[in-house]
Amino acid sequence: MVELKDFRVFADLKPEDLKKLEAVTRRISYGEEELLFMEGAPAFGFYLVFSGAVKLVKRSSQGKSQILKIVGPGGMVGETTLFDKGLHNAYAKTLVASVVGFVERGDFFYFLEHHPKVIFRFFEYISQELKAFQNKLAERSYASSKERLARLIMALDRLGLELSRSELAEMAGVSSKTAIRTLGELESRGIISINNRRIVVLKEDYIRRLIEPFAVSLDETVII
Questions:
Q1: CATH code that applies to domain 143-215
Q2: What pLDDT does residue 4 have?
Q3: How do strand 54-59 and strand 91-94 relate by DSSP bridges?
Q4: Which has more pLDDT, 12 or 140?
C-alpha cells in the first residue's frame, strides 16, 4: 500500500503538509467489483488509489462499454471533474479489493490555497493523461490489433493485474474474437502464458518490438 507521499502530485509537500492533507482524506476499503461512483452522478471530489486497482468505464446508450483507464496504487480517479464541478462522465469500479481515499472538493481547494505548488503538479498529471488519450485515439488508426493488445499485456503484467478477454478487447478497441485469436497465437508461440485470466509475458523483447511506443511517458500507476 502506498501513502500520500508516494503520489506524484504531492511529491513537493513537506511531512507536516502531508499530515494536513491526510486529515481531509477519507480512506475507504472496497471489495472486488465495487462501484466508487456512477456515470452521470454529481462529482463532489476525487479519489486516490492507495492499494488495489480501479477501472474507469464509459458506457454507450446502446449498452456497450469502453474501459478508459485502469489506475493502480499512486493514481487518481475522478480528477477531471474536480475543477468544472460537473457530473462524472464515466463510472469507476474496483478490479480487485482496494483501499481508496476520497478528498472532498471544498477541502482540497482550501488546501490548494495554502499549497499552490500542488496545482502545477495536478495540471501536469492531467495534461499527460490528455496527451495519452490523444495518442490512444491515433493508435486506433495506425496500430494493428496485435500491437494494441501487446501494449496492454505489457502494462497489465507490470502492475500484476488481470482482465477478462472481453475487458482486454474493450481497452484495446478490438473485438472479443480478435482478442481471443491473438492471445491464442501469442501463447502457442511461447510469447505469453495464460492461466485462467492471468497473462504472463515470457518473451518481453518480442512484445516490446511489437509495441509502438507512446510519445508521452505516463505515470506507471495508470494504464490507458
A1: 1.10.10.10
A2: 97
A3: antiparallel
A4: 12
Domain 4-135 CATH assignment equals 3.30.420.150? no
Task: With CA atoms as reference, report the closest residue to 73 among 151, 163, 6, 153.
Answer: 6
Is the per-residue pLDDT at 63 higher than 80? no
Instruction: List where CATH 2.60.120.10 sits in the chain.
Output: 4-135
Q: What is the Cα–Cα distance from 1 to 14, expressed in whole angstroms?
A: 20
Indicate if the pLDDT at residue 215 is higher than 60.
no
* 77 Cβ contact partners less than 8 Å away, ≥ 6 residues apart: 36, 46, 47, 49, 54, 56, 71, 92, 100
* Cα–Cα dist 51/100, whole Å: 7
Residues 148 and 172: their CA atoms lie apart, in Å, by 6
User: Which residue intervals of the chain bear CATH 1.10.10.10?
Assistant: 143-215
Phi, psi (5° rounding) for residue 201?
-80, 120
Tell me which amino acid residue 23 is.
A
Measured CA angle at 180 (ends 157, 218), to 5 deg: 35
Per-residue cell: 160: 500484476
Q: Element (H or E) spanning 71, and its range?
A: strand 65-71
Which residues, including other chains, have CB under 8 Å from residue 144's CB and lie 6 or more apart?
none
Give the pLDDT mean for 35-47.
Answer: 96
Q: Angle at Cα 15 formed by Cα 52 and Cα 9, nearest 5°?
A: 50
pLDDT, position 218? 73
Instruction: Tell me what the mean pLDDT of segment 160-177 comes to.
Output: 89
- Tell me the β-bridge partners of 31: none
- Contact status, residue 43 vs residue 81, Cβ threshold 8 Å: yes
Q: What is the average pLDDT score of the chain? A: 91
